[in-house]
């Protein structure tokens, strides 16, 4: 299951994405975009430097000009190989030269630019020093929906990543839980994700017993015991696209209360999923899931938003949260992951990745949402 092919995106696909991004920047009143190595650059160009160093690499997108990748001379051959000569122009700079002057020459001296959230501060400061009449906006704040609507090839990759995460759950439910540490089960999860084609594991949450009541708990040394609820939340990247799913299992026979809490979360997850349709605001998904938990009396114990987008990263816009009025559009992909967290006792979360279709929602995670009893 390893050695999978790279994402099927061509120089023409990347060119189209860069044109779309440049148009969106102009529509948002920006003079252009400055894109640092990271998810935006990968999505726009397919290029990721082997190491992100203090040497400046930046993609410059300005309306009316060809895209230019400013790159250190020693990395230029790799960049050219990755992006293909047809997609953009390379502008390399050699050690000893001022990379900000090279970049500034592409920016017409003034204006407001969108810049990748993960740009190193030293680079932003260098640009500001070189071009005092420029100003900068966070690219995610300025263009939150840039990568949100996925095309058919991206949807296929996200579906495949989801299926690999599902295969991981089908295997993990067979392993012994009682008597092993959370970290042991976490290692099993990571190994399974890789076995099913993931090249990168972003998180393996194993929250047993009271640890499950902390949604940010990853794995610890706690030995899992008979009677524990265990929150399993895991994902990463397969062929460049993300997976992220949660199932909560129980070691041995659950109590009536544990079953009830799990049933409430399952109903909330179902209600959130049912609210997914084109034109619905993101916050409606959150409200639908939250209403079920609130009506059952556990509203104070659902302490996070209902979902987040997914694509070339495992957390990105759009967010399913109160106040987010962005309408859903076919092709958007995000999690629906309500939970109930009872401090000092246990937690329950159920999470699927969902995409918006013309008819409503389609899940990329399809393992059972019943409470699974493990050994
Ligand atoms: Zn129990
Ligand atoms: Zn998750
Ligand atoms: Zn998630």
TrEMBL record:
Q: Which residues form the Creatinase N-terminal domain?
A: 17-149
What Pfam family is a match for this entry?
Answer: Creatinase_N
* UniProt superkingdom: Bacteria
Query: The Peptidase M24 domain covers which part of the protein?
Result: 157-358
Signal sequence range: none
Q: Which InterPro entries match?
A: Creatin/AminoP/Spt16_N (IPR029149), Creatinase/aminopeptidase-like (IPR036005), Creatinase_N (IPR000587), Pept_M24 (IPR000994), Peptidase_M24B (IPR050659)
Name the chain's protein. Answer: Peptidase M24 family protein
Source species of the chain: Streptomyces monashensis
